Amino acid sequence: MVQKIIIGVLAAALIAVCSVWGYSAWQKQQAAAPAPAPAAALPAPKPAETAAPAEIAPVAAQAAQEEKADGTHFTYKYVSPRNPELLAMYNMASEIDILHHLPEVNQLDGWLTLPRPINFITAECGTINAFYARDKGDVVLCYEMLDLLVRQGAAVVQANGGSTGDQLKYLMANLRFLMLHETGHALVDMLDLPQTGREEDAVDQLATTLMLSLVSSDESDGDIAQNLQMASNFFLLTDGGNHDMATYADEHSVGAQRFFNLQCMIYGHDPGKYLRIVTSGRLPEARALRCQDESKQITRNWLRLIEPNIAPRHRMSLEEEQAKVQAIKQKQVENSTAPYMR
Ligand SMILES: [Zn+2]
């Protein structure tokens, strides 16, 4: 009964937040991608008109931009469960259309050129999990995992005296990280991306890099750091601390290691801004010293792997690239006096 009330309140809060997200995402889409005119409706240019007068050149440039190929679009599906106990999760996910409210996944939708679409699916799995199914190109979020996150969020809020909004934040922060992690597995497979370390660690790094890089105007850098902190807390909550040999043999790093790796990535992204991660004791000083270099290298390597697969329509112009490089250099100057650096 209590669980049903929690889910009901959560669903109502989620609808409110998601409708805001949905509306702003729609606005951005409208602004960024005006509907291209059908090619058949365009009159064939006469030879004398091929050299456009200077005053209409920007319009011509925009038309050329619209003709550039878009990337591969994803599919989204909610599969109804057989287990009646999971119906509440199915109803919540499908009514809210939760898969269309994962900002980073939705930004990647159509941004990359892939050999086939990634299919995002929520389904009953019989176990608490989220995974990438290589044979079908499916990224699956299990209702059992959704249920765990709802319950964990409620427990965290109860322990810290938060609100339903905080429970919702915990759920969405973890879903964003989790689904990006699985999307990382899909990209490694579909794009045959080279990995020399453990893939599980690499896709944790990709999820973190994307969350730190794809900050929208709806959220601040601080909001994103807070989301990543909540995602890292999941690793501590699910790490019982009793590690046997089977845990060490697992393809995943132990939960505490994944927690500290995330702290290092967030702190290293902007040591001046996220100094509190070290001063509050979430990241030991000894590790913090290496984090700016570590974060920079991981981000650069992942972006180098992904960059060649960005669809022509979404590639940065030279000016945009130069502005980005300048912003990174500026941040390095600002951080040159930050403590806990080698
Ligand atoms: Zn994984």
Structure description:
Helix 6 crosses helix 8 (221-237). Strand 3 (130-133) and strand 4 (138-142) form a beta hairpin. The protein is mostly helical and 342 residues long. It has helices spanning 2-32, 57-67, 87-96, 103-108, 143-160, 164-190, 199-213, 221-237, 245-249, 255-269, 276-279, 285-306, 318-335, and strands spanning 75-78, 119-123, 130-133, 138-142. It folds into 2 domains: 1-18 and 74-178, no CATH class; 193-239 and 256-342, no CATH class. The chain has a 4-stranded mixed sheet. The protein has 13 helices and 4 strands. Residues 12-30 and 33-58 have low confidence and may be disordered. The longest helix has 31 residues, at 2-32. 58% of the residues lie in helices and 5% in strands. The radius of gyration is 22 Å and the shape is globular. Zinc ion binds at residues 181, 185, 200, 203.
